[in-house]
Each structure stands twice: as structure tokens, then as C-alpha cells.
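Design review, sub-item: ligand-bound model
Attendees: FS, YL, KQ
YL presented the inputs for the heme C complex:
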Amino acid sequence: MRKIPILIPIPIPLLILLLLPILLSSCTPARASDLDARLQTIIEANHLTPLQSTPQVSADKIALGQYLFFDKELSGNRDVSCATCHQPLVDTVDHLPLPIGSGGIGVAPHRRMGPGKPLVARNTPALFDLGQPEWRTMFWDARVEQLDDGSLTARTSQGPVELPPGLENVVAVQALFPPSARAEMRGFKGDPMRDSPGDVDIFGRANEIAKFQDNDIPAIWGGLWRRIIAIPEYMDLLQKAYPDTPVEQMGPQHLVNAIAAFQIDAYTFPQSPWDRYLAGERRALSTEAKQGALLFYGRAGCSVCHSGNLMTDQRMHNIAAPQIGPGKQPAIEHRDYGRSLITRKDEDIFGFRTPPLRNVTLTAPYMHNGAYDDLESVIRHHMNPARALADYDVMHLPPEVRQRTWISESLNQAMLDRLDPLLQVPADLSDNEMDQLLAFLEALTDPAAKDLRKTIPQRVPSGLPVSDDPAVMRAFLQDKPFVRHP
Ligand code: HEC
Ligand code: HEC
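KQ shared the predicted structure:
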């Protein structure tokens, strides 16, 4: 007798009914809720919350800060503003591996070096979410820092820096430095590393702040303060921004506090899909991004360093990023020893601050020197630094960076020998897992951060052009008396 298959006598509807629990558990809604539950545990364990929106600050203070941020009056040669490198048209960065400051030509990312002018040694970081209360360091080497007792400090490789009183936060402290850096904003003549008497601005007038020592912040800002208060509109703006203080009692701290207030107000974006998810909106993230989050906080080990709400522990780690560009010290070319230049400690060699990751899809190239153009290469580097260094190809770099790059096996080996043991990203992440991590990083971008045009003012009180377009600059200078400096 032929055997009758057992299933045939069972009516189809009954079969479906019997199999229903199995069917349900394997379809997406059920899996998603399982993902959500696992993520919830992680979110609680890591104390993660959505970013905060901006604190209330007077519109007058923000307006003063906005003008200063875009005003080239704060640069020695009157040719560079903060926005030259932190260009709002391109996401508060310049999309160059290494920035081009004083003497450069053009609008980022098409900006090119001027003849005889240097490249800046490190990549321009984005200015997103600087008002979050967790911030206590600034710069790739955290040389601006808020100590545990709340005091604000800054150091350079030459030692501690004297800061004016009344600075409001690390962002304000930071703003004191770009105008003091010769290659960025201060300008120079001849050797960029020496005192530069004889340097002139775009009108041919003496650059009176060129002559000071690099970390003489009081002298440099004394000069900048005199420039600003010589402009009547700035006197008005200062009085409005700080109505309770007579201008005679003000100083550079009032300028940088306003610059910080502007950056915080203009560039805080607390509505990324990840932030919405943290606020309870479960559908803000795709399943792939949720799986990426599980990896980020789990097996991939990213959150060991990219921890907390800012996704950075604000500590320095050596993950052996390829060394490209001129390096930080003229005496030791093509090397950047990172944090150790500030602390002079052996353990800090090649240490760079873990970068924050909000809106990271917008801010290529990546690493402290812009060595990588895309996020997949960055993650692959974390997975296997030795392989990534061996495979690193300088040909994708712009010529001016490539010409100043000198990678050697011994340098790579020196970095690998000191690799931070906390870097335990598995080398065998699958392509699928890579996609999930990338989807998670994508979910860290607030769509509102993609168009920042409205943060650019039409004009600034000095009357200098806001734009870095060489044609605009030429037209501006055409009818100006040019005083050639002796
Ligand atoms: C020539 C290009 C350039 C100019 C001009 C410039 N910056 Fe930057 N900015 C950089 C670079 C490069 C860094 C990182 C330097 C480092 O860490 O060593 C930086 C760092 C910063 C940071 C720290 C961000 C962080 O996460 O630590 C802030 C904030 C900032 N700049 C704001 C400003 C302001 C305000 C001005 C104008 C007063 C300005 N920048 C002018 C290139 C520039
Ligand atoms: C040991 C600490 C550590 C771990 C673990 C770690 N990172 Fe990083 N990450 C860093 C440091 C430090 C840098 C900057 C290095 C440099 O510029 O020299 C960085 C850079 C990055 C950047 C570039 C961001 C930018 O703005 O330039 C991204 C993206 C990134 N990490 C993502 C990840 C992901 C994803 C993981 C997990 C797969 C991860 N990181 C694991 C420390 C870490």
C-alpha cells in the first residue's frame, strides 16, 4: 500500500493556524520588536539620551557672534574668516584633507594654496552640536580643556596659555586660537614658524599682529580687539549684546563668547533619526540601522571609545591613522605626534581625540588629517590598521597634500607598535555587518544639517567680502587705495 503523506488530510486553514506562531515569530514586526528590546537595554546601560536643543541666548549676542565668525577682520591679512575653513556651504568643514588658510585662494572645497604659503597640519572638524553640556575638550589633541573643578585651560606645545577672564565655555576658549595660528588666520611673511615683521594685509597695510609669539594670546587679541572697536558698528553690536557692561570694561572674551554662542545656535541639530529613536520614535530607524547600532554598542566595539551622547569619550587614542601632510613640527617633518606634543608624555604619542560622530556622513574626509575619503575605509582601518596602512594609497590625495606626504614603513611600524589596546574591532566583520554599521552612521545625520545657507550673513561690519571667491575679492579691492608697505 502506498503511504499517504501525513499533511494531506489536514485542511489548509487548520495548517496555517497550526503554523501561525512560527510564521509570526519569523516575520519583520516581531524581529523588529526584538531588536528594539535589545537596543533598549543597550541605551539604558549606556545612559544614552537624545541631544539637547540649544539654550536660550539673546539674539543680539548671536548676531555679534555671527558677524565675527564671517568677518575677515579677525585675520592678520584680512583675507580669512572662520568660515573660510568652516564653510557653511559645505557642512561647516572644507572637504579638504588639510585646510588652506592665510594667503589661500578660492572657496572650499576648491580652495588652493597661495604661493609660498603652508598647509595647515590637521583636518578641519565640523562645528555640530557644540552646545551640548558634555563638551569639555576642543581640538584633535584636546589642548583646550575644562578641568574637573570647572576651570578652563589651554596649552600649546610651548606650554600653558594665559587666558582672559570671563570665558563661558570650551568653545569660547577655542575661538581664541585660530587667529593666533599663522597658517590659519594670523598670516606671516617668509618662514611661517618665525616672528614675521613686514607682513602686510590685502590692502598693503602692516599686519600688526604678525610680530608676536605664537602663544602670546593676550598680545594677539589685544591687537584684534583694537581692530574691532575701531569699527563703530561693532561698538553698537557689543553694547547690544552685553547691555549691562560698558564697552570700556569689555575685552576679547566678549568677542569669543559671542562667537561660541553663534556656533552653538546655528549648528546644533538634535533631530537625527538616532536622536528621534532615543526619544522613543521606534520607526525613526530602519532595521538595518538598528542592527548597526547593536554592532556599534556590541560586537564591533565602537562605543568603547565613541561613547556617551556625543559618541566620543573625549580621550586620546592611537589607532594608527596614516600620517599624511606636513606634520606639526618643522623640525620633524611629515610626523604628527598628536597629544604628546602637548603633554610630552610617551604614552600620548600618536594619540588623537576620538571624534564625535553626529552628522559624520556630511563631513568627509576623515581622521585628524583627512586621510580617508569615505566611511567604509575608516571602518576598515579600525578593523585592521596594519593592513590599512600597508594598502594606503596616497594617489587619491590632492597634489599639494601628496607632495607633502612621506610615509615610511618604520613610521607605520612605530604607530602599530603603540596601537591602543582598546581598539578591538573584529577584523572579520562581514560585508553585511559593514552595511549595517554604515546605515547606523547614516542615521546619525540630521536632515536639517544638510543646508546651512541661512547661517551666512549678507555682509559684515568691516565691509570686507564675506565670500572667498577670488573674483569677489578682486572686485572689492579694485577701487581701494593700495598702500604698499615699505
Ligand atoms: C585655516 C582653517 C581654519 C580656520 C580659518 C578656522 N578653523 Fe577652526 N579648526 C580648523 C582646524 C584644522 C581645526 C583642528 C585643529 C586641531 O585640532 O589641531 C579646527 C578646530 C576648530 C574647533 C574645534 C572643534 C572640536 O571638535 O574640537 C572649533 C570649535 C573651531 N575650529 C572653530 C573655529 C572658529 C570660531 C574660527 C574663527 C575664529 C575658526 N575655527 C577658524 C581649521 C580652521
Ligand atoms: C580605541 C578607540 C576607538 C574605537 C574602539 C573606535 N574608534 Fe573610531 N576613532 C577613534 C579615534 C581616536 C579616531 C581618530 C583617529 C585619528 O584621526 O588619528 C577615530 C575615527 C573614527 C571616525 C572618523 C570620524 C571623523 O570625523 O574623522 C569614524 C567614522 C569612526 N572612528 C567610527 C568608528 C566605528 C564605526 C567604530 C567601530 C567599528 C570605531 N570607530 C571604533 C577611536 C576609536
